[in-house]
Amino acid sequence: MLHIETWKRVLIWGLVALGLLLALPNAFYGRVEAYNDELKAAQPDGSDAEPASGWVSWLPHGLVNLGLDLRGGAHLLAEVRTQEVYKTRMDALWPEVRDLLRDKRDTVGTIRLQPSDDGTLKIRIGNAEGMSAAIAAVKTLAQPVSSVTAAGASDLDVSGQGDLLTVQLSEAEKAATDDRTVKQSLEIIRRRIDEVGTREPTIQREGSDRILIEVPGLGSAQELKDIIGTTAQLTFQPVVSRTTNKDTAVGAGQELLPASDEKGVYYLLESAPVVSGEDLTDAQPTFDQNGNPAVSFKFNVSGARRFGDYTAQNIGSPFAIVLDDQVISAPVIQAHIAGGSGIITGNFTVEQSTNLAVLLRAGALPAGLNFLEERTIGPELGADSIHAGTVACIVAGIAVLVFMFASYGLFGVFANIALVINMCLIFGILSLIGATLTLPGIAGIVLTIGMAVDANVLVFERIREELKTAKGPARAIELGYDRALSAIVDANITTFIIAVILFVLGTGPVQGFAVTLGIGIVTSVFTAIYVTRLLMVMWFERARPKKIEV
Amino acid sequence: MRRLKLVPEETHYDFFKYRTITFGISAVAVVASIILWLTMGLNFGIDFRGGSTIRTQSEQPVDVAAYRQAISPLGLGDIVITEVFGTSDHVASIRIQSQNDQDSVSSATIDKVEKALQGVDSSIKFTSVESVGPKVSGELIQTAFLAVGASLAAILLYIWLRFEWQFALGAVIALFHDVLVTIGIFALFQIKFDLTVIAALLTIIGYSINDTVVIFDRLRENLRKYKTKPLIDVMNLSVNETLSRTLMTSGTTLIALIALLVLGGDVIRGFVFAITWGVVVGTYSSVYVAKNIVLWLGVKRDWTKKSNGGKGNQFANIDA
User: What InterPro entries does the database record attribute to this sequence (chain A) (predicted)?
Assistant: First the structure.
């Protein structure tokens, strides 16, 4: 009557053994963590050298990641100012538009850039009848949008009203640009954090224009912001004039930027850069001929050509080296600079020049960041939380084990074995999927300890009832399982629905809780329906009791 | 062998004898909670209203007045300083309101606060600093309400599919009761209400529905077994039959939660408190709210007539 096929038994024990094996590394957390670090350090070199210490190589070495609230670190939620890119694009477009319209001066007349909002070019043409020709000419600059959803659409919106020509990015292009900007920012943030070299940073996109960065072990969110908060946009721009009056009239296509080292000094510059940081191939900290810290740079081929052409044509006039809207220096061009390399001098400290070189190498962020959320958790607080959580888990576990044994005797022992296996399975699965354990996550586990016995309790209570009417103990056990099943399934599916909703809508700590709760439900149903039952059947086959007491 | 028995082997308590009174108490509690919520408001944490929370730790006892005096010249607007009890260290929590309408409180501001406090107490350390900008906190509130709403809707639908619509309605009203009464307690004692409390509310929903479903399941079974017995008797029988299980499960869960409440540290105390409270309320509401509703609404007893009208019990015959 009570029969479980052999292949099922093997499968059940196999799954349990697998779970225990996967959970095992967590019992030796420090050792396995050191092993993993060595492994990671060894691999990028391509060498297959086995780490010397610690862990048996054929055993699994996945660990449960500890959340920031448990080990301390910094958390930042940044919003990418995607609109900034529109302006950059338009500023760069202006010289091309100007040259194009200049060639058509006969039909278009004089052209003059008008002041306008960021991200739009407004151009007044001298001859309003030539508008359609002007529009057609500018439209030749447009290119198809490079995205799947808006394939075929043009990237520029060109329109004319009277003698005013307006050029801006099309909506489709804006959407595509936004997406590209966030992706680029993500990549550059990752590169910068990798340059600093911290363990297991989390860098992921949230929603359409946000980036979540979590770096464990870092002292504060401020340190993290120092690394990723600087845009590091480097441009070389023609200088119109130098002034101390910050109210200087700014013409169209020009901008007034402050000098970084001299207070009260401003430079009036052409907005369209000659060359920008995107054309850099390398940047290294160095010293100038006077022994002051500086950064040497090298352009790629197209950057070198433009830089060379510009310097050849403008010998004797100054140009500005601009970093994040501040003029670092504005040297006068002495000679044609060919070869595309040079140095940037400013009043740098050695540390600043080293940092700047790192930022220039990693690339500029395409747009600035707003910080919407920052959290710093000290490592001591994390350690306290882990300690408190562990103690609570152990005490809760023991109390429940004692309570179950006192209530159900031998059957309680079966349930208790299943409960311990359940805990191991939770940790095994968490390690397998590389989930992050947070403080609410620990609470989720403790709650699971309490609720995991529920399925067993339902079965045991049912067996008790069936014993009153059923023909024998074996039949009662069988009926108990069969009849309790629908309640177990319904009760756990509803709770599982909640866990899924929490996971989908939650963030950070709440998600951590949802993960452990959800896994806990699956494992507790598995252990209650299969493991406890198997234990019971194995005992029953051996003891063959005439009477059982639940 | 002697066993621990929370309830006798067989019980015949009449759970519905005083149903007007118990249901009345529940109704009053819900109304009182809503009034408390509206009048006193919730003590929202920075997750929901933006701003910064700083957790300080010091070798010297916390002097809230001195802290306040040191920080107030900085002109940061509303500042709430509370001592955190129940830790071995001298811990205080300082909350600063948002300084603009978008971004999180800047690190420069936090540095100023740290310098000012170090003037009062040189051993003071910031063990955690959390800042949330108003832009995010506004969204977090929306998401939180969405999560609670989505959970209730999902459960309504699931119970409806698996049982009858009366059961679904009873279960969801019981869940509303649990959530509102918990919010009421948070308003009454002005306990900090943040994202983790929303997680706790959803856990309560999960636990309470678990409990309700187990009793419903038994009721469904008994309704088929005793086709002529009055509904109230079948209900009483069902609750009595599952009483032992209900108390065992609540018992083990409460044991685990109380361990966490006492030993789990102050960081998650609000969260654990909410769940603990919810388990008690959820167990109560399964019988006294959910069942009462079903009792009042009545259920279709005669299964020979096919007048189901798409009430959706076609999935309900799993253990018939």
Answer: Acrflvin-R, SecD, SecD/SecF_arch_bac, SecD_1st, SecD_SecF_C, SecD_SecF_C_bact, SecDF_P1_head
